[in-house]
Amino acid sequence: MGCAVVILHAHQFKEKTSALFVYGESITLQGKVTDLYQPSNQGGQFTFSVHQINGNNLPVGLKPNIQVFDSQFSGERLPPQLGEYWQLHVAMKPITGRLNDAGFDSEQYYVANGWSGKAVIDPDSADNKKIKPSNSWRLWLHQKVASQAYEYPSFSYILALGFGDRSEIKPLQWQQLRDSGLSHLMAISGLHIGLAMLIGWWIGLVGRMVCSRFSFINYDFYFLLPLLTSGLLALFYAYLAGFSIPTQRALIMGGAFLLMKATRLHWSGWQILLYSLCLILTLDPFSILQASFWLSFFAIVTIYLSLWFINRIQYSWKQKLQSILMVQIGVFIGLSVLGVLVFGGISLVSPFVNVLVIPWVSLITVPLLFISLFATALMGVFGTAEYSLITWQWVDWSLKPVLFVLESSLGAWMMLPKAGALLFLLLGLSVIFYHFRWIFPIAILWLVSLCLLVFPVTPNPKWQIEILDVGQGLAVLIHQNGKSVLYDTGINWPQGSIAQSVIIPSLMTKGIDRLDGLIISHSDADHAGGRVAIEQALSPTWKRSSERIKGDLPCVQGQTWAWESLQFEALWPPKLVDRAYNPHSCVIKISDTDFSFLLTGDIDAISEVLIARQYPNLSAQAMLVPHHGSRTSSLISFIETVKPELAIASVAKNNQWHLPSQDVVERYRKKGISWLETGDTGQITISIYDKEWSVDQKRSNQYQPWYRQIVRKGLE
């Protein structure tokens, strides 16, 4: 039965995705905007439900949701808003994300959210027009609240708590939320829907007391009133959050609880959890691809286990507080397993911050939030919305202690390698086993884990080279003896960088929080864009570049230096420059007694000719293809001088520059050289052992989920 459900959903998703590309890449869509517009420095994006493609209606059940990116709506031209129907001329794109050992996986993210593709609006097309205005009450209320609360310091959190709109949360605020362990507060999910149900229950109890004065009211109504108000308020809150997938899961679990109460059945907490889990996975099996799914259910399981572990009635306030703290510690240990695997670390203050902030937000902020929402809605209907300003000031005041805690928690995040997840898992199991006095199994558990750590199943390489999948750019990590050197840092953008999203997480999963060395080939943004982020986060001991930069060691022809057991030799450029462009790229050969690798940056043909002339005996088993495989590089004479067995190009799939050039690819292949490119393979790892070396391709050498072929349109 379960397999049939998964196959049905997978087939439906495939059909939706295929329908988007039947008419080619440049198409005209008609459909409805289904979520709030998310502005950015480059324009914005929104979720779009496609109803027509090139005038052809799509059947019910096969209308795909996509992410639409635009750069045209600014100034006086309003962007598409929630609930509006639009006709848009777009360039349809398959989802081709980066794939590394760590970092964001956009392909998984799209599938988990039910998005079948992405589209970029053609800003010059006359076909772009609004067909029907919005009648969304959620949008109307969101705009009212935004206009009233935008001046408050907690404005971004008000929108997040009220509507699930996190677009106003700034990078520093996200860091504070992460470091404090309170990120979950700003994603409307089980906790928030549960609070709405609880408040609704209290309202129902008050209503029951009022109704009890009237004898003509039926007893069943008395009984059902708290259930009705609880369910309705939860439904209202989920609507304000756009019925996001986490709120849908919470509604299902809450609905199971209310159903049990209404039918007077006696289900245990574990039964409610399992029934809800079955229903959620039946309706949306792709939920398992979301980290929030595992975090939500894992949190509930750890709460149940913690309460079971306490296993005694608490009478005094002191005992109750101890129990609350025990539950928080239990949740901390349990969620730390997933936290290390998903986020690469843990918040050191999370148990203590949550035990203070969650009750405060639950008892003070959320009730005030609901009062303010209802006040804004009612007064907005009567044209007196300004009178609800005072209630939003109350909400802002209630969040001031939370803001103080967030600011005080900055820096409390500890990055951990994935092995840290095993440590927390062992700790949690040990506590459970100890409860049953199972001392011997605890000893066996720790002994086996220690043996696996000391005596690994597979031999460790002498050193490794990782060519990270960073899209159109470059970042190469060299590892030996638990230490690392980085060559180039990838690109950056206003909200972040490759350094923050890929390089730093990749190092942290290995337990490396500091770089021995940083080498910048040249100053172009796709190679040096993440330099500042790397220097701030990883404090490299030494830095080298071909540009005159204070604090940098020179990378110029003829220099050699040793690092661990490896030899670094700089082959280019001949001298330092004030600004390093492509021809001034720092070219380095890294060698040991068994293997050598050539890092080429973005050198051009002239640079290649001069290098080959000065180093006629230059050779390397593997090399980085110059300038991402551009026609301006990779001369046959240079290839014949290096004589590599393997050539690797760092490129984005389907990039706008159409790199690598097929002519360049053929030059290498005609020489019998193996060709790999990160856009196809994902991260490429070269492991060097005694007398041999191996290559691991993230997409090819490991099991890949079926959905990757669908969203990439068979590009793998």
TrEMBL record:
NCBIfam families: ComEC_N-term, ComEC_Rec2. Pfam families: Competence, DUF4131, Lactamase_B. The keyword Transmembrane helix applies. CDD domains: ComA-like_MBL-fold. GO terms for biological process: establishment of competence for transformation. This is DNA internalization-related competence protein ComEC/Rec2. The lineage of its organism: Bacteria, Pseudomonadati, Pseudomonadota, Gammaproteobacteria, Vibrionales. Residues 472-653 form the Metallo-beta-lactamase domain. SMART domains: Lactamase_B. It is found in: Cell membrane. InterPro entries: ComA-like_MBL, ComEC_N, Competence_ComEC/Rec2, Competence_DNA_uptake, DUF4131, Metallo-B-lactamas, RibonucZ/Hydroxyglut_hydro.
